[in-house]
Amino acid sequence: MVGATWEDASVARLAEICMGAAVIAAAAGMAANASSANADRRVKKDRHIVEKAAGRLDYQAISGAWAQSRQANPAPLEAITGSVRLRYVGAHEQAGGIVTLTFGAHRATCLDLISSPIANTVRSRPGC
Q1: Phi, psi (5° rounding) for residue 51?
Q2: How far is residue 64's CA from residue 87's CA, in Å, rounded to a whole number?
Q3: Which residue in 76, 35, 1, 106 sits closest to 91, CA to CA?
Q4: Given this model, what pLDDT does residue 39 score?
Q5: For each successive 10 residues of the chain (128 residues), what is the average pLDDT?
Q6: Rounded CA gap, 54 and 121, in Å?
Q7: Residue among 121, 108, 128 at smallest CA distance from 42
Q8: What's the CA gap between 40 and 6, in Å, rounded?
Q9: Are the CB atoms for 44 and 96 separated by under 8 Å?
Q10: Cα torsion angle, 67, 68, 69, 75, sign
Q11: What pairs with residue 52 in β-bridges?
């Protein structure tokens, strides 16, 4: 910068700093967005695992295993929950003989396999 003043050099340096900050902010935003999208894909994959289990297991198997676990025989329920490749959180029974098996997914998401005499369904909810 021949003939440039101190003020010209300061303005150029300030422009470089602002440009660098903008590049860093953009990169951080892109990384956060990519991470969030990846986590969403993992939750969808986890849900698919539970949906496959809901499709292959029938109400009789799940309710029978639940009844056995209530009578101090956890083996049948452990066999069912062990066949699902997610962390088993717990089970409970609702009115009408509906049995809910809860599995932990990514992003602190609970996936409930809800088994009723009519059909098995899967519900996602926060909190695991």
Answers
A1: -65, -40
A2: 21
A3: 76
A4: 77
A5: 61 60 46 61 96 98 98 98 97 96 96 98 95
A6: 7
A7: 108
A8: 51
A9: no
A10: negative
A11: none
Cβ–Cβ < 8 Å for 84, 53: yes
Report which residue type is found at 11.
Answer: V
Amino acid, res. 31: A
Please say whether the beta carbons of 104 and 110 come within 8 A: yes
Question: How would you write 64-122 as a 3-class SS string?
Answer: HHHHHHHCCCCHHHHHHHHCCCCEEEEEEEEHHHEEEEEEEEHHHEEEEEEECCCCEEE
Cα Rg of the chain (Å, integer): 27
pLDDT for the residue numbered 76: 98
Beta carbons of 94 and 105 less than 8 angstroms apart: no
pTM (global) more than 0.85: no
